[in-house]
Amino acid sequence: MAPTDRHAPKLASIEAARAIAALAVVLMHATHLMRVPQFSGQVALGGLFDFGYAGVDFFFVLSGFIITFVHHAELGGGAARCPGYLWKRFVRVFPIYWMVLAMTAGPSILARLATGRTPISELGAEDLPGTLLLWIGGGTPEYVGVAWSLQYEVLFYLSFCVLLLHLRGGLALYALWAALVVAQAFGQLPAALPWKLGDPHCLQFLMGVATGLMARRATLPLVRGQWLLAAAAFVAAVLYERLGSQGPHAFGGRVALGLASALVLATLVAMERRRPVRVPALLVQLGAASYSLYLAHCLLINIVLASMAKAGLYHALPEALVFSIAVLAAVTGGWLIGRCLELPVVAWLRRRRSPPAVPAPAIAA
After folding, report:
1. Neighbouring C-alpha atoms within 13 Å toward the C-beta of 20
2. Cα separation of 141 and 131, whole Å?
3. Where does residue 273 fall: left (phi above 0), alpha (psi -120 to 50 degrees), or beta otherwise?
4. Which residues contact 124 (CB under 8 A, 6 or more apart)?
């Protein structure tokens, strides 16, 4: 999720929700990274956090919500709106991704150089679009395992230009896109859509866009105890996705997670409009750095686990303690990368190339 800017109020509760989603992903990956033979050889803690991938589903809805919420005044503004929007998306996604990619691939490249092996990287020409440019039609990204989701994000960010160019036409295209995703899920298309446009994650993004439009253009309902209902709906969606008859990662579970995520976001916005929601400052700060945490946590966890194994501590300490140390190190490291590297670089790049202001189109409240 991209950070909010001067065009929209910053919602602390959504930053906190973003932090919780990132933590869920970290917890899941920490247990699975311990299963490699040189470590435990099995998923840690009995797979207690296997549901953590639901945080990624939340992120996809959140992406659609936040770019619509932040750029609402620019919708339908024409082609003049696209360069500034695309520059903001570029500096938000790629610089820190390339840095983490370099940190992850660097040891392998240096090892090949030291031993005189060629090529210096395992990457072939066919891997470069998917790995370096995050093009969803360019193959699976190498080195940074979570980068597959960034390919979807880049696709979503590019597609959003249709709303900037023409609001009603863009909404019509988005509605058609949603219909095609559903049609593909039920086998009603002769072939799969290109560039994974028929994936249920695309429908989650579109749910986020719809939620962002409603949050900007209407007074969202809020009843007593709605936050409990929204939380319960998300838990129920996770259980259905994990235990439902379709099995994990099926269309129905993705739709359930998308709808529940949209309900959570709508509820948080409604609560914030009533009065600012008080959340722990630590969660807000972690939410602001959650992209760095998401990108770097696997690398950091592997470094910690390997260091503990080399020092003879991995098998000497209880599994839960090893797990906790790895997670704490990953969260701390991800927060530091975000605070000291990612956010300053993004701010600097945005100042370096700030496109001229274009008057916003008049939009009814």
Report:
1. 16
2. 4
3. alpha
4. none
Residue whose C-alpha is closest to residue 9's, from 350, 213, 276: 276
Which of 61, 50, 1 shows the shortest CA–CA distance to 233?
Answer: 61
Alpha helices for the chain (secondary structure H): 12-33, 54-70, 82-115, 128-132, 147-159, 161-165, 167-185, 200-217, 226-243, 251-274, 281-288, 290-310, 319-337, 343-352
Q: Which two tokens stand for residue 23?
A: 């933590």
Give 99: exposed, middle or buried? Use CB within 10 Å, 0-12, 13-18, 19+. Answer: middle
For residues 128 and 32, give the distance between their C-alpha atoms in angstroms, rounded to a whole number. Answer: 27
User: Residue 269 in contact with residue 62, Cβ under 8 Å?
Assistant: no
Residue from 59, 13, 37, 92 nearest 345 by CA: 92
Of the candidates 162, 152, 153, the one whose C-alpha atom is nearest the C-alpha of residue 195 is 152
List pLDDT tens digits, range 9-45. Answer: 568 999 999 999 999 999 999 999 999 887 888 889 9
Instruction: Give the contacts of 228 (CB within 8 A, at least 6 positions apart).
Output: none
Say if residues 288 and 85 touch (Cβ distance below 8 Å): no
First to last CA, the chain: 24
SS3 (DSSP) at 8: coil
In the structure encoding, which two tokens stand for residue 188, read together?
Answer: 């009603």
**Residue that has been written with the tokens 């031993």 in this structure:** 115
Q: How many Å separate Cα 60 from the centre of its chain?
A: 6
Q: Which amino acid is at 76?
A: G
For the segment 205-248, what is each residue's pLDDT rounded down to a tens digit? 999 999 999 999 998 889 999 999 999 999 999 999 998 888 88
pLDDT for the residue 354:
52
- DSSP one-letter code for 6: T
User: Contact at 8 Å (CB) between 63 and 153?
Assistant: yes
- Which residues of the chain register pLDDT less than 50? 1-8, 357-365
